[in-house]
Records
---
Amino acid sequence: MARLSNSFRNLTYSFAGYFLKILVQFVSRTVFIQVLGREYLGLGGLFTNILMMLSLAELGFGEAITFSLYGPLAREDQKAIRGLMQMFRRIYTLVGAFVLAAGLSLTPFLQYFVKDLPDIPGIRLIYVLFVLNSALSYLNTYKRTLIIADQKQYIVSGYTYGCAIALNVVQTIGLLITGNYFLYISLMIVFTMAENLLLTKKANDLYPFLQIQEKEKLSKDLTAPIQRNIRAMLYHKVGYVLVNGTDNLLMARLVDLASVGIYSNYLMITSTLESAVKIVFSAISASVGNVGVTESDEKKLQIFNRINFVSMWVFGFCAVCLMCLLTPFITVWVGESYCFPVTVELVICLKFLLYGLRQPVNVTKSAFGLYWQDRYKPIAEAGINLVVSIVLGIRLGVLGILLGTVVSSLATNLWIEPLVLYRDGLHAPVRLYFKEYGVFMAVTAVAGGLTYWLCNLVGLGGIAGLLIKMIICIVVPNLIYLVCFFRKKEFSYFCETIRRFVARI
């Protein structure tokens, strides 16, 4: 019950803050587009991807040390916790310094990242501000990891979303008054520092023993798994960055910066949905880690099946909504000129769905510390992604670049990740997972096709047409899922959980 209570509290705080943040962010993005335009929008996406490449310096230390905290927290071993935090602080200070130095060293070479470098005043100074913000984000941030690992994600969510909302409000006001992009980025730096300092103070209040200056020597029982996991996470980090951090770079180089700006709107929408569902996984990840060190294999499999069932339903529903609503929504929001062709939108939706269906597997793998077993998979994924994206990007533009990501995911993630989880974590036959996956994808294809056809029958445009299509998207796929899955025991479990929760209220 304690794990369920912590997960629910984390979830409630996270969702409340997140949706308020999204509302403010949507208004801020609208003002940004109206004041500065798509080239500035593309510039932000490009610089963010360059800095994502530099984030390779982090090497996955965060995930490895987070996993190592679950045991000491369960045992209330303050010395081990303090030792891990001291290690974390040293590592992240070095990472921040490296990102700053490496990022600044790229300043003279920005023209090589873009097909045609736009005539934006002070473009290199803008990039330097992005680098500074990225480097500062690593300082004093390590203590939030302890709060999250201790199943108190709701505390971090409160500070994170509070600062994000305040930042967006101040940035929007600044743009409306001055139209100055330098002020916009400078405010981002100020709030990054403020968030880290506030979380550091909160962690010190929650865990006073962290302020003891005595250095702790970690035992080999703790350091050996960390070293092994860090070596494995190096591969995962490299693969992740090369897959997720290259789309904007390739678009800027092979197509143009305006396409990066258009794609950034799509990315904001899909990332919003991804983040909303990831809130659920972040809220329960520490609890899953606790399950990994305390429960039987049967219990682990039962909990994973529940998480996987909800994820498939939610991400499938969201993917159908995206396919049917992206064009009408963006047309109403910023105009038809910011829309991609339907083929590109279909690939964006498929990319979103494949990413979403991986989340239960990846969260459980990470919570169980299974980094080493599939360490070469991300490198293979990155290689396939780059080759296919470049070859198809030259021929098909944006469509080809995005297809590279989809092809690489199907060739690697689809089968390797669940195989490792079931073989080494759940100790169950992986065919159970693939059977569920296949049935769900077939049902989603039917639900998506029928919903898209019904939405195309709507003759109205504008806000009225968008609202009608939204109603169709809410009703049709969920009704199909309900008919197909209402007999599953996972569905019954969540219905009973919701019933108990409503009764308590």
Note: DSSP finds 19 helices and no strands in the chain.
---
Amino acid sequence: MLNTCFATTQDYHTIAYYSHLVPVAIAFLLVIFVLVQSKRSLLSQIFAWFTGLFCLWLIGDVIIWTNNDYHLVTALWAPLDYINVLFYLFAAYFFAVIVRGDDIPNWQKAIILIISLPAWWITITGQSILAFNQPVCEALNNTFLTQYKLGVEIAVLAYIMLFGFFKAIAGDKTKRKQIALVGLALVLFLTIF
């Protein structure tokens, strides 16, 4: 049997390595710097989780783009949507802690956990991928999970914009600037997905 993954991935190897592994290396160095400089504060730990999930997604994605093993592509494709959901939720958590200047209440952490559960359940039960299309070397995602992921992404972006807007209005000039800068950076960063 002809492995079509090799034919479809060989054109993307070089660009995929640069577009994925360079950001992973930079993010890793940034996390180490932040953790060392902040003496492992809550904010730096949340940032490390947020960045770590982003790096995990990038590594899984680059392996999918550059590998020609059907089984490995399928195995790594399956959890990427769940990692993406977690990545967005940690972005919201990170932003909330920056804006508040303190940790969020436990009931808000419970909401974040509850929001992640449907994606987690679909992933661990093996339902995140419905089939694998060998001629184009792509998995066919669970439609509900794809739409759920998109809904979480939109909700997180809306949360960052609305929460940031209302907190910026209530804050002083310095706080407004900080909220606007971090909020804008997060929104721009997250919209690339």
Note: The first helix runs from residue 4 to 9.
